[in-house]
Amino acid sequence: MTMSVEETEALLKKAEQELDGAKTADEIRQTWRKYYLQVGHRSLGRLLLGRSAEEIVARRRSREQE
User: Fold this and answer.
1) What is the pLDDT of residues 40-50, one digit of tens each?
2) What angle do CA 11, 14, 16 make, to 5 degrees?
3) pLDDT (tens digit, 9 = 90+) per residue, 1-60?
4) Number of other residues whose CB lies within 10 A of the CB of residue 32
5) Rg, Å, the chain Cα set
């Protein structure tokens, strides 16, 4: 079963907030383990590199329209 874009967006926003608040490598790893099965490694990596959840979701939406 595939998640809708809205569900993915909500999870990405939660992950983004948790990653932004992480102060140690262990906190980042915990957040990663919590979300990677739902949103994927690439999306989490993009969040870590500074992309916003909105950018990631916008790209997914544009791919679905193609």
Assistant:
1) 999 999 999 99
2) 105
3) 577 888 989 999 999 999 999 999 999 999 999 999 999 999 999 999 999 999 999 988
4) 18
5) 12
Tokens of 11: 């999870």
Three-state secondary structure of the chain: CCCCHHHHHHHHHHHHHHHHHCCCHHHHHHHHHHHHHHHCHHHHHHHHCCCCHHHHHHHHHHHHHC
The pTM score is 0.84
| Domain locations along the chain | 5-65
Distance CA 3, CA 29 (A): 23
Tokens of 54: 């909105």
Sign of the alpha-carbon torsion through 8, 11, 17, 23 = negative
| Closest residue by Cα to residue 12 from 62, 51, 66 | 51
